[in-house]
């Protein structure tokens, strides 16, 4: 993460400075987006952009998004990530710097736009095959989890709970329902049916989640978008989390108890393979178009 973007400039991360009056720092008054890159090709860019636009509208932040794609591509180049198998670009937009008051600034101020790129690694095939473990924790987030804001303290505390428990993920529980992870969406399989929480205000409408639902329907896997009662997970045969860097990650134990056989299930495996194939097709098509 050597070169970052800040308010129109590309500069070393050590030289990037943000005002202490920035409302993102003072109020978490901003949104963010994380877009994956595979061998230098952005994946799902239009979907990430649309979610970003929705967040800007919800928070009433006036920011022109023209040029954001080029910023993403240049950051990959500046940081020697165009050949990286897996990388990401993080983008954060806050309302900007203004005297501290809870209401929006009376006089318009320019938003703060910050972005960086870095590599990330998939788990090894052997590690993926063993499956991952989660611990359930109360969902203490606000009522608009569908907006990808930088206000992530409840998510941080939830993920730390998983670290303290010595497991991989945190499963957020609200009103007795398993809603999603600390930074991923959650799916369970009951019989042959794939189930995930509906795209309401209490979950983030994940980009990978959307791809997985599309792929499941293409494969003829029955899908239900409904609330998942936590106690019903005792009858689930499979479960997995999805996310930008999580992709499709199997969960074989929750709260110390095995799910189904305690091994990666066939539905999870089919979806993970099909999602990887979708990525490869998009990367190949993007490469041909670039050539």
What does the model show?
The structure is a single chain. With 291 residues, the protein is an alpha+beta fold. The chain folds into two domains: 117 residues, D-amino Acid Aminotransferase, Chain A, domain 1, CATH 3.30.470; 155 residues, D-amino Acid Aminotransferase, Chain A, domain 2. 30% of the residues lie in helices and 29% in strands. A hairpin with a 2-residue loop joins strand 10 and strand 11.
Globally, the shape reads globular
Order of helices and strands: EEHEEHHEEHEHEEEEHEEEEEH
Protein structure class: alpha+beta
Spans of 5+ residues with little confidence (pLDDT < 50)? none
List the helices and strands and how they pair.
Layout lengths: L2 E4 L2 E4 L10 H5 L2 E9 L2 E2 L2 H15 L8 H11 L8 E8 L17 E8 L5 H6 L1 E7 L14 H12 L4 E6 L2 E5 L3 E6 L2 E4 L10 H12 L4 E3 L2 E2 L8 E6 L3 E8 L2 E2 L7 H25 L1
Parallel strand pairs: 7-8, 7-15, 11-12
Antiparallel strand pairs: 1-2, 1-6, 3-4, 3-5, 5-6, 8-9, 9-13, 10-11, 10-14, 14-15, 15-16
What features would you highlight for this structure?
30% helix, D-amino Acid Aminotransferase, Chain A, domain 1, 291 residues, D-amino Acid Aminotransferase, Chain A, domain 2, six-stranded antiparallel beta sheet, 16 strands, alpha+beta, ten-stranded mixed beta sheet
């Amino acid at each position: 993460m050597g070169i970052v973007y800040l308010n129109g400039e590309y500069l070393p991360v050590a030289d990037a400075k943000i005002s202490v009056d920035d409302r993102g720092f003072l109020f978490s008054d901003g949104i963010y987006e994380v877009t994956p890159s595979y061998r230098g090709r952005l994946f799902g860019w239009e979907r990430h952009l649309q979610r970003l636009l929705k967040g800007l509208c919800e928070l009433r932040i006036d920011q022109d998004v023209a040029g954001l794609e080029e910023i993403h591509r240049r950051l990959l180049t500046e940081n020697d990530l165009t050949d990286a198998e897996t990388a990401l670009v993080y983008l954060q937009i806050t309302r900007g710097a203004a005297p501290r008051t809870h209401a929006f600034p009376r006089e318009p101020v320019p938003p703060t736009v910050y972005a960086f790129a870095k590599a990330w690694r998939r788990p090894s095939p052997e590690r993926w095959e063993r499956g991952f473990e989660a611990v359930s924790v109360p969902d203490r987030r606000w009522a608009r989890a569908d907006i990808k804001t930088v206000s992530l303290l409840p998510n941080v505390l939830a993920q730390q709970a998983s670290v303290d428990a010595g497991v991989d993920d945190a499963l957020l529980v609200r009103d007795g329902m398993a809603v999603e992870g600390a930074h991923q969406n959650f799916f369970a399989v009951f019989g042959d049916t794939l189930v995930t929480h509906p795209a309401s205000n209490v979950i983030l409408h994940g980009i990978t989640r959307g791809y997985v639902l599309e792929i499941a329907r293409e494969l003829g896997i029955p899908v239900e978008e409904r609330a998942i009662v936590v106690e019903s997970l005792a009858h689930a045969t499979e479960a997995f989390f999805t996310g930008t860097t999580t992709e499709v990650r199997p969960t074989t134990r929750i709260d110390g108890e095995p799910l189904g056989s305690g091994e990666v299930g066939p539905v999870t495996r089919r979806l993970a393979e099909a999602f990887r194939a979708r990525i490869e097709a998009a990367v190949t098509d993007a490469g041909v178009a670039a050539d």
